[in-house]
Amino acid sequence: MRQSHSSVTDIEIIEDFSSSARCDEGFLRVKRLRCRNRRADGSSSPVYRVDVVDRPRLDAVSVLVYRRGAAGLEVLTRMNLRPAAFFRKDQRDAMTVPDPAAGYLRVEEIVAGLLEPEDKGEEGLRRRAAEEVREEAGYGVRPEDIQLLGGAFFLAPGILSEKVFPAAVDVTGVTQEEPEGDGSPLEEGTLLHWRPFQEVLEACRRGDIPDAKTEVSLTRLLARMG
């Protein structure tokens, strides 16, 4: 297990400027639309509202980093600060099924990152995946080492436009260096942890690891390996 920076115990809100912020600025862009359905017979539905959330780039890659050892297959997970999950605790009246009392200061998940404008096609996807593994996990792998795990998927297609392209890489025998990260305060206290493959999969299914891309990647790699 590796830890970067000091251990974070809380996230303090300095200012909530939601009421004065434009919906088309910031890291997430919210489009507020009025729409109607057009039908084959020429008629239309009533007008209704749609909110769409875009990130700066519409595509992301996730990478399941794994290795083979005497105890079997192991998976590398990261414990990351996740404010959106953490601040759910302040809206308990809106929950139909209560969350853990302590909330989610960190969420366990796999390596992931946004594709950049230059990351075109399969070649760019593999290159970005290898770069994210180096930056977030400390393993120097080649783009050709990256295994693509099938088609991309939406995480919340009713709201988010982003698609995630799942991938995996075997780092058995590769020397791990200290991950450099991206310098963001959200990476303070990040923990890297090797865990048995089946243990991580069961944690996903119990909800202890509440991250969809992690479970999708695990099941796809498992299906590929038979």
From TrEMBL:
Domain Nudix hydrolase: 56-217
PROSITE patterns recorded: NUDIX
GO molecular function: hydrolase activity
Keyword tags: Hydrolase
Membrane-traversing stretches: none
InterPro entries (UniProt xref): NUDIX_hydrolase-like_dom_sf, NUDIX_hydrolase_dom
Protein name from the UniProt record: NUDIX hydrolase
Record organism: Myxococcus landrumensis
